[in-house]
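Quick board copy: two proteins, each given as sequence then tokens.
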Amino acid sequence: MTFRIYKLQNFLEYPELAFKWTFFEPFVWSGNQHRHQPSYGLQMKRLIYIFITSTLAAQVLALFFNLYVTHNSLETESNESGESDLFEALALMCFFSSGLYKMWNIFWRRDDIGRVLEELKELFPSATIQTKLAEANDYKTELKRGTGGCYRFTYYDQKSRTLMGRLARYFTFSYTYYNLVPVVQLIYEMFSPNQSITYTAQTNAWYPFHNQNKHSTFIGFVMSFFVQSAAEYAGAGFVMCGIFLILFLTTQMKLHFDYLASALETLDASAPDALKQLKRLINYHNHLLRLCKDINDIFNLTFTLDLIVATIAISLMGLTMIMISFSRAVMYSAGVSFFLINTYVFCKNGDELTTVTEKLSTALYYSNWYEGSVEYRRMIIFFIMRTSRPCEYQAYGYTVISMETYMRILKLSYQLFTAFGALD
């Protein structure tokens, strides 16, 4: 295996790509200060960011007003019930709102995020430490006692890079797929001799440029299509920013907790400075716990809203798929998969963080603590008691972010699906 020196920026490739796509850099830290120098390009990025954010907020309002503004359209003449219009609008508002509150949270807590990044940069091992640990362990399967453990950079880098790469491709595919359906439908209606042209855009949303028949003109369809495409781009991009940032921060925490477990397991209790090394690792553990708490505090709002919004959106989009036309059902299949995958990823992420922290007490027990001094063994006992409770992401202390929570969301979504279906 080829040895490689890693830097914190190696793990930031996809989060930085997501922020680049949305023309937004929400926080300043020593790793990106050079990008915030006054320039024409920076001003243009901010203007584009303000435009797409405003478009996203306007889309939410357009969906809301569509429920109350009466229009005589070809769509309402096609036996679409009031319930299906309501469910469709609410489901789409869930999607667009998820992008808004994620970006608002990142923007509002940008100083806290920058401070966490600074701490992670200071905590990240230098090239000298990486080289020293790698040479001491020599890439062997079992770590040697007294070598200080080993960081598994390659494993976590490849794992996070693969996951974020797949998510980026999925978001790109879903966005393209969702916006191609209206175009394909329009082409089909234009070339079908017995098919009337409805000029149906992505969603039923009200805009000032509507006439009394909504999208009954080509110009109205084009304007509505591009406005909604911009809003969907912003919504999907902001969701990517939020989830990639969470994945990056959690990957760093798993990397450090995994190293701590290996360092505790290889700790030599018989060494002259064993007590000093143990105290250093305890301080290291305290630092990691505080960082986890800070990360959890920053994203408490998005964790809570993600659980609530995903539960409602999955049920509403699933119900909308069976109540409206086939073309719209095909479109909303992308929305259902979006919330299923997005919720699965961040619940699985929280579950993996809990799992890696559970290894600490086991690593302590399997070290040669019995060869240490009385004070060393006493400290080991208290440390084991402290690590018996794993580190967890929680939504304001209400529920743990885990796969068990994900299964409860699916169960509750199905219950809402049947309850809403009974109203039809």
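And the next:
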Amino acid sequence: MKVSFPPAPEPEVEAAEAGRLLFAGPVDFVKGVVAMDGLPPADRPEVCFAGRSNVGKSSLINALTGRKGIARASNTPGRTQELNFFALGDRGYLVDLPGYGYAQAPVAVVQKWQALLKQYLAGRPNLRRAFALIDARHGIKPVDHEIMTLLDRSAVPFQVVVTKADKIGRGALQQVLAQIEGELQKHPAAYPELVVTSSEKGEGIPTLRAIIEGLTAG
């Protein structure tokens, strides 16, 4: 049976305000982790962001938090080479994962941090949801299926966040959303709503904030 993946609706006023307040509060960089034994205690809910190198992950985190430099944005793919943990006050962790796919780094370094990524996704008990970032200009590519299959096998629910939606026209965007919907039929762990965003324009940011607030509540 085909699953529908509509864009997430605008949040209700109360949910939008709760999301705004969460990210208006303290958001602090905790640590960068290069090995599993360096993970902070799994004592609070956690969400993570995964995506191909240069998908706009750092820019999205900066837009969510309203802090321009909290996640270093770079035009060099593969700059994030560790798991970067940010505390949302005492409510939860937001985790910026290493970019996968092409990266300007030595092969051994790439292999090491991608092995860490797989270990993290398979073994983090407090991980509530992964957000899989997909560039609106490219849609889902084969390398995205690799990480999504890993999430399926790890029983980690994931939700696709479409980035850079302002970079293409509305007609082209609808075609990409249809492609994403078709590709997600292959992944049982996919959450049946997309979040369409533009970090530059602020599109979809209140929706994503509200979703994260709900996942880290209580």
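Board note added afterward: Residues 73-79 have pLDDT under 50 and may be disordered.
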